[in-house]
Amino acid sequence: MNQISISGYPFDRPVIIVSAPRSGSTLLFETMTRAKSLWSIGDESHMIFEHIEKLNPSFGICASNRLVAADADSTTVDRIRYAFMTRLRDSEGRSYSDTRNGSDKKPRFLEKTPKNSLRIPFLEELFPDALYIYLYRDPRENLSSIIEAWRSSDFVTYSALPDWPGQWSLMLPPGYQQMKGKSLEDVVAFQWQSANQFILNDLSELPGDRWTAVSYAELVADAPAVMERLCLFADIPFDQSLQAHCEKALPLSRYTKTAPLTGKWRMNETMIERVMHSLRPLIERIEAAVAPRGAGPVLLSGPVSKLRSSASDVLAQGAPKRLARNERCLCGSGLRFKHCHGKLQATHTDMYGAEG
Questions:
Q1: Where on the phi/psi map is residue 22: left (φ > 0), alpha (ψ -120 to 50), or beta?
Q2: Which range among 155-169, 175-189, 203-217, 293-307 shows the weakest confidence by mean pLDDT?
Q3: Cys staple from 67: which of 44, 119, 142, 165, with CB 3.0 to 4.6 Å?
């Protein structure tokens, strides 16, 4: 085995998926790892980060999974970079150390861990040339999946935390203590809101060409088109191996609890609807942020192609002839018409009012 040594910066534009937990990031990650030009550690990087005590909330040194530039001292940076380098594997499972054969070519690697939604300023110190893919999902589906994760006890991340009774599941946002005594849906909404707010805030500080966005609905509806677009963004080939994988139905990801089903979120509908009103401003902000990047709708479930073709049906069902752009869309999404079917069905421009 070739010994790994690090001198200088050892990577070339790592590709980092950031998302709220249970957004479909494992499916996207497992799909992208089929690209022969990408390396990965094969799974989430919890142990790489949290093996370092000061980055692990269990030890009481840091208060959450939020990490910023000040947390990235030189020793910490070197340890994490080395840990990634020694664990990198290609699409066939071969280690980077065994296959480089003296080459000085720096690896392109793919990383995804939902806790990274809170770590972008820290990641910028580790990987200053990183590219980010922001994955988002219909919040109703996402909230329901997070609820089920908490109920299952299969996603416990911390068994004991200061000012928290019992176990904690999934990512730990700053201010989690204020959720003590709250309902499960309140805790879940807090996690979803924290992840997406931090992602949007932190990505807005980066040059626009260093991040893109994709919806889970797009990925499952048209994987070949999505992956071709993401490969173009990441500046890697959309190679035959990845193409062949995308042309078939994508397999369930390793962390899937139950098979996806249209409308499955409705089994938790009462809980979800109770918190949705507080999330609507953020939903609209996500919609506005991702729209210029060609990404699909946020709140509407189902394949994007189906949503686009059904826009005229929604508008035809009792819609006024001049619908103001800032009015709520008739489809029931809760979004303003200009960010929903008004955007998806551009041929209906005669239905807009005078509002900006």
A1: left
A2: 293-307
A3: 119
